[in-house]
Amino acid sequence: MNWYLAAEEAQDPLIPVWPEVLIGLICFGIIFFVFSKKLLPAINKALDERREMIEGGIEKAEAAQTEAQSVLEQYKAQLAEARHEAARLRQDAQEQGATLIAEMRAEGQRQREEIIAAGHAQIEADKKAASTALRQDVGKLATDLAGKLVGESLDDHARQSRTIDRFLNELEEKAEAAR
User: Fold this and answer.
1) How many other CB atoms sit within 10 Å of the CB of residue 143?
2) Do residues 103 and 132 make contact, with C-beta atoms less than 8 angstroms apart?
3) What is the pTM of this model?
């Protein structure tokens, strides 16, 4: 054991021991060869797959973004078209409403005029009926009164009618002259 210590002490620590360097280089070569043949291709393959996956993901993301932008533009166009259609429908409804109101007013005016005309015709018919009934009643009363005044019966119907008509015509003329 002493001889080993003595041999070590004599050697300079800065100078490498060539047999150890040679064994280290051989081991390094073997490890490098195994890594380059077995491990390095697997690492490169995994890195290539990852790069392709990332690039594919970026392409897919760009494609999805382009598609989303296209869908957004279509949505905006459809929204603008829907707003335009709603405005057109609202305008049409307002025009139809105004037309309907005008038609209803015209119909109401026509019905009002018909009712007024029917009322005037009814009033005129009632006036004639009342005038006829009044003439008969006044004629009968006048005939009875005249019969009492004269003292004889005025049963002759034709004479009664002429007398009554003449009397009422004179009354109407006086009423018209007073107006």
Assistant:
1) 20
2) no
3) 0.39
